[in-house]
Design brief:
- The structure is a single chain.
- A hairpin with a 2-residue loop joins strand 5 and strand 6.
- The protein is α/β, with parallel strands linked by helices.
- The chain has seven helices and nine strands.
- It has a single domain, classed as 3-Layer(aba) Sandwich (Rossmann fold).
- Strands 2-7-1-8-9 form a five-stranded parallel β-sheet. It has a four-stranded mixed β-sheet with strand order 4-3-6-5.
- Helix 1 crosses helix 7.
- It starts with 9 loop residues before the first strand and ends with a helix.
- The protein is globular.
Length: 186
Amino acid sequence: MSAPAEKGPVIAVVGPSGAGKDSLMSALAVSGPRLRLMRRVITRAPEAGGEDYQAVTVAEFSALERKGVFALHWQAHGLHYGIPRDIERLRAGAGGVLVNLSRAVLLQAQEVFGDFIVLSVTARPEVLAERLSARGREGAEEVQRRLARAVNPLPEGLRRVHEIDNSGALSAAVAAALAALQPERA
């Protein structure tokens, strides 16, 4: 009988809009040994762009929730977000599973997943403002609201947090994240 596969940690990637979370996650999945990506289920129109996600209607999301499909789910910015239980399958034999989470669910996620690491992605305010304006998904008023939320702290009680500055070259943020995760996997 073979031993069960090692189960990698869930690596929550959090930070303000425009910090480059999705770009960092994609680059880490390519660069990081045995790092995998988890797609979120979101009640956002498929044509809205941005991250790779499974678009569903509110009714579809509610049906999935009732069926117990999600390991974790929450609401933010008028949308529903879910992390399917399939994340456990991805963890088997992985060096870690990267998932974009909301700061509001980090403590719950820490309890649900156990082996849990937070990469808190930051960027200087002027970089955030430039990135948000360039993507063109929000008007000026919404950009200002998102910038105001950017300074919200992480909740108290998280055990393993690494801050990654993504103000400059993506390669520098990837190197910093891999260095931060390396001792975690040792």
